Amino acid sequence: MVKQISKQVGGTTHLNLDIEESADFVYKSLKDKIYLVVFNDIWPLEGFNFLLRILPHYRIDSKLMFTTRLREVATYVAGDDRGLIYSMKNLSTSESSELFWKTAFLGDPQEMDPLKKQIGEEVLKLCQGLPSAIVAVGEVLATKHTLSEWEMVLQDIKSLMSRGLPVDQIALEESISALSFDDLPYHLKPCFLYLGLFPKGSKVKVEHLYHLWMAEGTISQDECQNNETMMDLAERYLNDLVQRKMVEVKEEETPSLRKYKCCWVHEHMQDHCSLKGEEYFFKVLDFGLRTQRRANKRMDPLLISLEMKKFDHLRSLLFLNPRDPEMKLEWPRRMFDLKKYRMLRVLSFERVDFQERGLPRETTKLIYLKYLSFKECNLGVLPSSIGNLSFLEILDLQVSSPIIIPNVLRKMVKLVYLYLPLECKTPNNDKLYLGSLKGLEILENFDTTVCNVADLFEMTNLRHLSKTVIGILGDLEQIVRRLDVTSVHASILFPSIKIKNFDCYTEERHSVLRKLLNCQILHTPYMDGHLGRLPRYYKITSSLTQMVLIGSQLKDDPMKTLDKLPELQVLVLQDDAFDGKEMICTKSSFKKLKRLELSTLNFLETWKVEEESMPVLSILEVKNCRKLQIPLQHELRNRFPSIKFENDK
Predict the structure, then answer these.
(1) What is the pLDDT of residues 613-640, one digit of tens each?
(2) pLDDT above 90 covers what percent of the chain?
(3) Are 57 and 31 contacting, i.e. CB atoms less than 8 angstroms apart?
(4) Which value, in Å, is the radius of gyration of the alpha carbons in the chain?
(5) Coil, strand, or helix at residue 559?
(6) How far is CA 396 from CA 339, 347, 401, 421, 444, in A?
(7) Using CA atoms, how far apart are residues 17 and 4, in angstroms rounded to an integer?
(8) At the N or C end, where does the chain have fewer CB atoms within 10 A?
(9) Which of 45, 55, 60, 63 shows the shortest CA–CA distance to 25?
(10) pLDDT score for 236
(11) With the C-alpha atoms ordered 226, 232, 237, 240, is the resulting torsion angle positive or negative?
């Protein structure tokens, strides 16, 4: 911020003002006076318009003078006969080079690393002969000593200039990272700073990040546009941070509900993110968790010392275990009192081993919780008191081992996102009742052996559903009806269905599978069981992006049907999915296929791959296809260098 200075010299007052804080001062000082006011370095047009509003209606003898780096601002300010524009001459190429190297490098530029010199020349071109820009950028580079640091400055300047910021203004800031942050709209600042809570260099799953933003109130339903959900809003904000080169992302390989898979803070912003976060009360408490192996089960003393502290104000408590994915943190026998954290909104356990002691009782007394996660934890039983968490909106039960879940999830009527475990059961082997959760938007791992299919008809807001159907014809029939209803209302996007132990030896069962494959919104079917034959390609929805066939025992070459699916990107044929001897991938087939896996096709001898088939294939794995001819393997390796063969001999 610019300090306010007022100095009387003769009859003239020279003002150097922070405009936003001094509007009233300016108006009172100039009212009823003839004045000359000089405003230095005006470059947002909004700034000029603001000045006109705070200045009194000046008398005809009063004058205003503005300096700016941007011609469009000067043209706008001068207007129609309102003023004159004087353009300073830029330095010549030789003058610019001399000034730049004198500022950026004390030695002889000819003795500089050629790569660093090349970067310097690129930076110099961006300065466009402006002395102030040349000096400002040169002073920044003079403090950088490695090639990578010079490269980072160049990339940062290009990025910020693309958003309309003058190069010398960029360089004059304390750091380019600071300007990147200060230039953020208010609503994006807490979203960016939240990423500073995660270990440096770690990659955060975007769906997990979105949940945390929502639970913390970092994003609000009021900011959603049209039919946008909170998850859509979160993705829009993350995309803004990506466009500003502050966050990097990895995109999903195949179409899904989310565009991105994971994200991380850009290298040049990491330190600034952490430091700035503390100013905004984003604090990381690193208790140095060091879990010993079985021989010595002790929790780090620093964690136990948390018992002696009081954090009534704490809103988020995340137990992260990023060091060794094979190890879990063992929960201490004498747990620190969670009642101290009664205002918690977010509680996340990651790879924590609760063993036989179960969940600490105080957890279910945190009635203000909105987010609760047991991702990859060992937790044998979920206590029935979990139903007391009536404000919970996000519940992640994707534990790493089978778990017993009491039939109390129905009480959590505010749940929007529910992630069930891969393996679970109820105490009495009853089915979980979820029909009261009418607000669910995402439901993962819905298993018909544990859940009632009829409950899905009550969930009219579902946007994503992944489910497993095991063997029962009636369950699959209801699933197909639910998807047909969805096709009319177009509420569920990218549904995924896993069918296990479902053999189609009768027309009745085969008919249901044909109806499933014709559902217009189906994207990722996983089918385990005898099928015998595939429907004609025009009877299969064109929306399929992934397909897994296991033990299908198809008699006809599946490639002749599947190669015509326009959006198919992943195909897996496993465990005698095809009983024939020959497969053919014809010219220009599988135009979008990226991944192909052939595993344990015991009868396959010949596979013909014509030119221009699978043009974008990047992953090809062939395993345990023992009769597949060796010459073909060499041919495929020449065409697909990344091919992976693991055939048994």
Answers:
(1) 898 888 888 899 888 875 566 666 676 6
(2) 29
(3) no
(4) 32
(5) helix
(6) 22, 11, 14, 8, 9
(7) 5
(8) C
(9) 55
(10) 93
(11) negative
d(CA 501, CA 505): 12
490: tokens are 């177009």
Task: Identify the weakest region by mean pLDDT among 84-88, 561-565, 625-629.
Answer: 84-88
Q: For the whole prediction, is pTM greater than 0.85? A: no
Q: Is the pLDDT of residue 371 over 50?
A: yes
Range list of β-strands (E), 272-378: 316-319, 329-330, 346-349, 352-353, 371-373
Taking the CA atoms of 424, 399, 216 and 308 in sequence, report the sign of the dihedral they define.
Answer: positive
Task: In whole angstroms, give the CA distance from residue 600 to residue 578.
Answer: 10
pLDDT in tens, 30-51: 777 788 888 776 766 666 666 6
d(CA 236, CA 218): 13
Helix (H) or strand (E) holding 599: strand 595-599
**Integer Cα distance of 232 and 228 in angstroms:** 6
Residue at token pair 């020279």: 14
Rounded distance between C-alpha atoms, residue 350 and residue 375, angstroms: 5
Is the separation of the CB atoms in 642 and 618 below 8 Å? yes
- Residue 18 makes CB contacts below 8 A (sequence gap 6+) with 1, 2, 3, 4
Give the residue among 529, 612, 613 at the shortest CA–CA distance from 577.
Answer: 529
Half-sphere exposure of 85 (CA within 13 A, CB side): 16
Structure-block tokens of residue 330: 């063992």
The rounded distance, in Å, linking the Cα atoms of 578 and 602 is 9
- C-alpha 296: how far from its chain's center? 38
| Per-residue pLDDT tens digits for 419-458 | 999 999 999 889 999 999 999 999 999 999 999 999 988 8
Residue 645 CA to residue 303 CA, distance in Å, equals 48
Closest CA to 609 of 628, 632, 630, 626: 632
Q: What is the 3-state secondary structure (H, E, C) of 422-450?
A: CCEECCCCCCECCCCCCCCCEEEEEECCC
Which residue, 130, 151, 131, is CA-closest to 141?
A: 151
DSSP-assigned beta bridge partners for residue 645? 622
Tokens of 529: 């069981």
What three-state secondary structure class fits 383? Answer: coil
Task: Judge contact between 189 and 154, C-beta under 8 A.
Answer: no
Q: Is a pLDDT exceeding 80 seen at residue 527? A: yes
Q: Is 228 or 88 the better-scoring residue by pLDDT? A: 228
Contacts by 479-482 with C-beta closer than 8 Å and gap 24+?
Answer: 479/448, 479/453, 479/516, 480/512, 480/515, 480/516, 480/519, 482/453, 482/456, 482/457
Residues whose CB falls within 8 Å of the CB of residue 428, separated by 6 or more in sequence, listed in order: none
Please compute the mean of the pLDDT values over residues 516-538 and round it to a whole number. Answer: 91
Please identify which residue in the block is written with the tokens 């995402």.
442
Cα 208 to Cα 262, 301, 440, distances in angstroms: 9, 29, 17
Closest CA to 102 of 126, 128, 69, 124: 124
* CA atoms of 442 and 416, how far apart (whole Å): 7
Residue 211 has pLDDT above 90, yes or no: yes
Position of tokens 């999915």?
Answer: 577
Give the residue carrying structure tokens 């549904």.
495
Instruction: Using DSSP, state whether 565 is helix, strand or coil.
Output: coil
At 627, the amino acid letter reads K
DSSP strand pairing (5-9 vs 12-16): antiparallel
Could you give the CA distance from residue 646 to residue 641 in angstroms, rounded to a whole number?
15
Please state, rounded to an integer, the average pLDDT across all residues of the chain: 79
Comparing CA positions, the residue from 452, 447, 519 lying closest to residue 483 is: 519
Residue 199 corresponds to which tokens in the numbers above?
Answer: 């270990």
